[in-house]
Amino acid sequence: MRRVPARLQLVDERSPSIRQSLKTGDLALARAKRDLLEEADNALWASLLLDAPRDTARARYQAAVKRVEALGFTFRSGAALGKSASLDDIIARLETIENGSLSREASKAVVGAVPLPTVTVSKAFEIYVDEIVADELVNKSQNQRAQWKKVKRRAVNNFVDLVGDKEMTEITREDAQRFYRFWLEKVAPKGRKATHSASSGNRDLGNLRVLYEAYFTHMGETDRFNPFSKLNFHEKKKRIRPPFSVEWIVGTILKPGAMQTMNDEARGVALALIETGARPSEIANLTKQSIHIDADIPHLSIEPRVDPEDPREIKTASSERKLPLIGVALEVFSRFPEGFPRYRNRENDLSATLNKYFRENGLFPSRSHTIYSFRHSFEDRMKIAGLDPELRMILMGHTIDRPRYGAGGTMEWRQNELKKIALPFDPAIV
């Protein structure tokens, strides 16, 4: 039993109070069902207080989904029930209604007679960000969240510009095919050079496919046909960035004066990449707590930043690792024990700065080389030196495709192995 708030009794048909059987003698189950119903009512009443028609319709729909779940059923639209529900399921739903204990709205929900609210593509994207995947964004830094939204919003904006900001329920296969053809003109135009890669088109199509499925699953329609299903482009094998040769690193990049005019922090990052094989973003976002220069074995901890005021994810779970410091990297972090605050949360600026400087100062041996080539060189150098394959994967932050046992070797062993590839350098370059 629950009383409807006084100021909402004119708009909630169950006024002045709600009474509903939970149909169980199990106290724990009854509490779980009660909580679902309470959550549904709270969401509905909050939307009614806001007096926003679209949000109210969505809140009513979601409340209906929760009420059906509390009664032990899975919410399904009337069309879905008629198409694929078993006879036993339909009979059970009708019997629940016939006993007369449900409100008119709850009865409609049980048989899928509550209409799906009208929500546009752009509004669905807001719901996706704010509700559906909100937990996935919690540990991202502000820059990571902005980049994540930018990529996914691009797909929505492109679709809206081409087809219009349609209601989600009105998007057709023809709309999806039109969007596919829009990208086909960019990926494989007839008689002209492509302006975009297949991966760009696939990214937009994939993001719309995910948005469509996630939104309707969130709204309780798990078996709805996805109009963006199986629309994609064949991607050619990606070009692998070439590594720097040892001769080039020692004779050109580590040559005294080669990076003299670069700002100190950017130069420190570039030099650290040589003997860590880390991603530039990983080095840029290190904090004092992750740099253990005074430890028995000086090392870096590549790990997520859990500061609630300034969180940051790392690329994958396997990317979390400890890297012993050797050679020029040890020299760099002796000078920068608190990291590189100029580029913290600004990894894109760092990448642009390094690539531009290397290009303009002849530090790339070819047009195909980028700053990421340091990472490829690190892997090659470890392989040539005969380092254990699993140790190489650990130090690179790659996934090991077998159950993990042990700690991956002591830090002292890792350090001794890495010393095999340490390159000579003049400390004055730091």
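The above is record 1. Record 2 follows with the same two-line structure.
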Amino acid sequence: MNRKIAAVAAIATVLVASACSSSSSGSKSSGDVLSTDGKGKKITVWLMDDAQKGWNEVVEAAKAEFKQKTGADVDIQWQTWTNYTTKLDTALLSGNAPDAIEVGNTQAAKYIDADSFVDLTSVKSKFDNSDKWLDSLAASGQSPDGSKTYAVPYYAGARVVIYRKDLFEAAGVTQAPTTLAELKDALTKVKAANASTPGFSAMYLPGQNWYTAVSFGAGTYGVKNVIAKKDGDKWASTLADPKFVEGISTWNDLQKNFSTGGTTSDEATQDALMAKGNIASIVGNGWEVSSVADPKTGDPSLKDKLGTFALPGAAAGSTTPAFLGGSDLAVPTNAKNAGLGATFLQIFTNTAQQTLLAKHAIPNAKNLVDAYKAADPANKATGDAAQGETWFIPNTPLWSGTNETALKTAFGAIAAGGDPATELKKANDDLLKTLNG
């Protein structure tokens, strides 16, 4: 654990030194954060190949508008998530950083803390819909206190319930549940109707799927500062708060009564397991519908039998807050054409481009999510989840796999019969050791 913390700190220190030594780095005035002086120039932009495969027309439209506005060309260099941060670290250290980059929203804090991204606070209002950005995506691109913006939301993914419509209907459940009481009643019926199926889960909730468990805690405690909050210069964990424990007890009740997921598994294999036929529902990202029915890894015969709905919340008419994953966009402080890079991001995330992207993924602002839901009826649940309350991990570079292990251990122990308050207090103490260095 200490080696991981030391490694993060070392990278941060070196990145700061690299940024400060660059001739184009450092704090920029509002006048030069955005630039249109690009005649005869070409900027380099790193984007994940998800866009190349899914919404390349958005990229091309942004390139054309950027060319018209600045006179500059754009060299899109397609990336993959495998070893991406290592490649980015190397580019930042070498002084050959791209002019704009995509970064996962759980990765952004490390670079923000290292002062590796241009401060966009002074021009945030010049980005379309910046006052309506999805909460969790916006938070991931900010300083821990939320006062400064260093990364711009790009697109998101939200977790919902993915279910076998045929199994629910065969059990007499013809409408997707909208309350926690309706959900429990539906799962009870589905469980009874499939009592003869070995290892059947009406809802697969493996003990170490901490994303889903924390969502229930956020539903009672609240999404702000869920897991941990900044208290002066230190972090304080909120896992042991009675309201959080109350939500976890609801999750524990569901996993005990309706899941055969066990205590040592997480959600990593749930798509393939659901395809085998003895799972009626899972909690996963919307794209997992395609994974369950994938001809290579799943069962294509399930394609038209799968549906989605938002996980109901504790209060009537509410939904359980979803963890919102996704990507941000930023400009490295030592980019050679930082001002043009920022202008490309301004254009790439404007209303026109984000509305076009909404045909394929959840756009970056709440007011544009309706376009995503209108693109396909199957998008309604994930769109509703993104527009509702969402939560995110503590915004600190010290968040790591060690923290996730502490959460997995706690929820696995609870699923095994441990007392929720006791196990969450242990996780609470473990997290504070890591988050406070």
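The CA atoms of residues 218 and 226 lie 6 Å apart.
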